[in-house]
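[worker-b] picked up task from shared queue
[worker-b] task type: protein-ligand structure
[worker-b] ligand name resolved to pyridoxal-5'-phosphate; SMILES cross-checked against name lookup, match
[worker-b] sequence length check passed
[worker-b] input payload:
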Amino acid sequence: VSSGPHAARFTQQPGVYLLNHSVGLPPINAAEYAEQNFFETWREQAEPWRGWIDAITTFKTALAELFAAHPNEFCPQTNLSSALTKILSAMPKRSGRNKIVLTEQDFPSMGFVVQQAGQDYELVFIPRDADLLDMNVWNEYLSRDVACALITHAYSNTGVQPPVTEITARTRELEIISIIDVAQSAGVVPIDLDQWRADVVLGSCVKWLCGGPGAGYLWLSPEASDHFQPTDVGWFSHADPFEFDIHNFRYAEDASRFWGGTPSILPYVVATNGIALINEIGVANIRQHNIALTEQIANSIDDTALKTPRTPTQRGGTLVLHFGDNQEKLIAKLNEAEVRFDSRAFGIRLSPHIYNSSAEIDTVVSVLTA
Ligand SMILES: Cc1ncc(COP(=O)(O)O)c(C=O)c1O
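[worker-b] inference finished, payload out:
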């Protein structure tokens, strides 16, 4: 079981749990928090919607603290794919801008969305083997005929963390709409939205935020909100949801225009508790611990096996390792040692969180270097 600095505040899993790029462990009080903030409201309030809408405000406030932004700049979304679908169809059409730039390293689901919802555009993929740390690569693809660019803050297969602040400086210069995917970085890499000055940020709570599935979100820059006109709307997208005049739809001024009809509540209540715990521990502390533990592994491994950049600031929270012909043997040994990890296109993915300890990582290192 986990024995890291804050292990007691999270539900335990047997073995060395390093699957935080996939699902973060639930906080120890997850069920109790949901009981108090969702079921109790439902059972005991004559008008539970008041309490439930307050719960969504609490969710947005927790996100605002996490990303140094304003609560009204966030809108709940089921997941990133759905949010991206809505963003692409809501995006202003601008003459002479007929391209969408993304990379072959983006999460496939995001690529599926761009192919289906971006059919009015020419899709330009930065190839799989391009060095996404290199601004020259991005500069080659970003030009004045590009409508929007999808930029992933931490790529799931390689762990690479591209220079988002530099990329968004360039997209702003070229008036390209920037859409940042923070699914793999939120909760493990500190993010300051003021620094990026992106147009749109898409995320979820299921991984490092320990908030469970179903609680995605989008962040919309206040300057950009007015330009986006979603077609997937509902009364919660209305400037005044309780006006109830069927002939008078007016977009909410802020990100809520992307909300839709009667919202789901429970997943966001569960997620709020996760985000609050991560905020309390502090993403900077989590990052420092994550780097210490990933360095412990990286320092015991040679360059050919390390598929993630060796420089910690160039990677997200995950290390990706491939040992060539020894790969299958090492996978079997890690499984035998009860290390929880997965294996993707580029190799074994290992993602230590604040509940993991250096002693647990010793176990991993001893398997990998035996
Ligand atoms: C980089 C990245 N983007 C997006 C997602 C998930 O997208 P969705 O919320 O649509 O399932 C993942 C999940 O692993 C991811 O790693």
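[worker-b] attaching auto-annotations
[worker-b] The longest strand covers residues 146-152.
[worker-b] releasing lock
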